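Re: export button greyed out
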Amino acid sequence: QKEVEQNSGPLSVPEGAIASLNCTYSDRGSQSFFWYRQYSGKSPELIMSIYSNGDKEDGRFTAQLNKASQYVSLLIRDSQPSDSATYLCAVNSASGGSYIPTFGRGTSLIVHP
Amino acid sequence: NAGVTQTPKFQVLKTGQSMTLQCAQDMNHNSMYWYRQDPGMGLRLIYYSASEGTTDKGEVPNGYNVSRLNKREFSLRLESAAPSQTSVYFCASSESRVGEQFFGPGTRLTVL
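Workaround output, generated via the alternate export path:
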């Protein structure tokens, strides 16, 4: 069973601070890594994708991947109350000739004014 | 461009009833997925279709069947609903097997 682990939180940060979300995964052969944001009662929406080791920046968001240590993280700079949501880490791993996406249980982020 | 659409949005069933959840995407994506989401459990993969004409089991396939009707449509069927199938169901699609997924709005299903 391939596993993706996240701290369930809640992670509480003040407005304007940096929020750091972490995720570890069990399958060393994992190929692609994603962060989704899910507001309460809504469907997940893609925030970041990362495929190779290192950092990837998009606006206030930075995804970091370290395949040797099997972790992927998401940094949110200048956090806003509108960033309050659950953040899901997802990993695609090879399985029987295809690729299976596995999601973590999500980290709840609260940004307070 | 509607993205991924799901019907119905809400459904209440009695134990033993059957129903089909419909999903369609207009992005010409090859891969499609069905998930269920329960409180504290995250998204769990029920079935997926890597490409038109293929379907495979995910993590929690028991009690469900799927049909990849064509490239656009992927349906999920509950033959004999059970209270344990009360959940929110999401359909998703992706251009490739390793790519990012785009989700539909979800179906909230209650089985009494």
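Chain A touches chain B at residues 1, 8, 31-32, 34, 42-46, 49, 51, 88, 90, 92, 96, 98-106 (CB under 8 Å). The button fix ships in the next patch.
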